[in-house]
Amino acid sequence: MTTAPAIDLRRYGHNDLADIRQTLLDVHADAYFERRHEEFVQRFPWFVDHWGQREGFACVVAYEGGEPIGFTYGAPGEPGREWWREYLAEEPADPSTFSVSELMLKPKRRKQGLGERLHTALLADRPEALAVLTVDTKRPRLQALYEGWGYRKVGERQPFPDSPLYAVMLLDLRAPSAS
């Protein structure tokens, strides 16, 4: 009987970006192969660099048999400029926020619980009180998945003219059910 290779989750930070940048681009190329000609999808390297240059950038890459199969990354939000701010009537007692920018898996690795493992590893031991992410409003099953992880939709935004309309989702990292 052959056993599948174990999944190895590796953590990286701001100073590691040069070493992992191509890995992130390669997984993205696999994940978005069908949409590779869309202008917004083609700008992914800019997003990697934008997030990776931020102090507090954190990334978790999943490897199987030494091959990267998925990743997630983000960084602390800029105080006063968090994605959720315009949608809440009252500011939380502690508004510190970690922005989850990407969670991406190679297509063959989806729907196996790996996304949640990556997400949990990324947010483990974060000092912020909240996590925020956005999800394409045309992907209601993905939104429901995040709701199952404890997120709640607080609004919608389109950050760029050529980007999808996104649901803005907020997670209380100090709640008992937070991932």
From TrEMBL:
Q: Which GO terms describe its molecular function?
A: acyltransferase activity, transferring groups other than amino-acyl groups
N-acetyltransferase domain span? 7-172
Gene3D superfamilies for the chain: 3.40.630.30
Under the heading CDD domains, the entry gives: NAT_SF
Chain segments annotated as coiled-coil in the UniProt record? none
User: Which InterPro entries did the record assign?
Assistant: Acyl_CoA_acyltransferase, GNAT_dom
Q: Name one Pfam family in it.
A: Acetyltransf_1
Q: Which domain of life is it from?
A: Bacteria
Name recorded for this polypeptide: N-acetyltransferase domain-containing protein
Q: Which organism is it from?
A: Streptomyces alanosinicus
Its lineage reads: Bacteria, Bacillati, Actinomycetota, Actinomycetes, Kitasatosporales
